[in-house]
Predict the 3D structure of the following.
Amino acid sequence: MLNKFLFTRIDNVSLVVFRVVFGLLIFLESVGAIFTGWVKRTLIEPNFTFNFIGLDFLQPLPGNGMYFYFALMGVFGFLVMLGYKYRYSMSAFTLMWAGVYFMQKNSYNNHYYLLLLLCLLMIMVPASRYFSLDARNNPSFQRISMPRWCKWIIILQVWIVYTYAAVAKLYGDWFDISVVELLMKPRAHYYIIGDLLQERWVHYFIAYIGILFDFLIVPLLLIKKTRKWAFFASIFFHLFNSIVFQIGIFPYLSLGFSLFFFEAETIRNIFLKKKPIYTKNELEIPPYKNALLVFAGIWFAIQIALPVRHWFIKDDVLWTEEGHRLSWRMMLRSKSGYITFKVVNKKTGNEKYVNLKEYLSPKQQRIITSKPDVIWQFAQRLKKEYQAKGEDVHVYAVSSKVSVNGGKLKPFVKPDVDLASEPWHYFSHEEWIYLSELKESKDWEE
């Protein structure tokens, strides 16, 4: 039964068209990052970037190197769209995108992570077997069908993303629309829709429709009777997100997923009218069957486990940020605060307060106030800097307070802990972070 479900061949038009869309979008993501100034702000102007912990060797290329880096990624994206040397082009883009993703956390965005996952999956699938330069240059390579698993591996990945995005919204500040209100305030100046976005009924609509959409969109697209209406809802939902939140290619990538839900004949009649329709439904069990099942089992086990890891870490992820990344927690909270670092020479006792402006870009100064991993990494960087000058130092966050969703400022980092000597714990709570429910402490005094 499993063999029949996974390895029966079906028409490949959805995957072929998705490859073209995907290649176009990653091309636009790459060159767009250059022309919108994202590369300059995120990777060139800062003195350094906060990479994922353990990957300290990943830092931006010097000078204008990152412009050439992103331009080359754009070339590989364009080749993916054309289907030229597809697996090499897709693999090269994936490797370079992984480098960008892991080298910086200043502009963390869930769609960057999703893009990395999709790149890995797209390497596996035979997306260039039709309507590609590979197929044109080698006619024997051309096929009009694919194994059914190629469709379902994408659908299951998307389903996981939407489901966890919905689950993450099930908390008080989302239900009472305070989060949505905070998200809409900076958009009051938007032409035509700015005033509308400040209306309370609009906030309720966004909050509750957001939950329903994330929970239901994949099931409704799978059901033939509701598919068309679900697709129209997707168009409205994702275009709204694109206009209001300006989150790059993510809304259009999400619309591209719809290709895997419609009948092959429908996709063919819209995009590739000359393509023959495949209807044989042959069962071909490949030699890589066992390897595929092992890979899929590990892949989806990780995808299901990572977003729930914060449930096993002490305190609230909204406060500690521990388990926030890789968890599809999209636009769920607003945080603000301040932090002051003090460096103390272990031998002389001399103290020096750190001027963050000398080290960090404006965006880095904002994220360091409430993200423990970034706070810890900065302390380690200060320690190494002073060691290079022959000084052994303690590093303290002597004044650190954070507000979540517009609430009261609360103490965040314990001021008596030497962060420079603390190890980092990947899957457990950092005890130098105050608990979010702390009620009695002198540190509460404003």
Observations:
- The longest helix spans residues 13-35.
- The two ends are 65 Å apart (CA to CA).
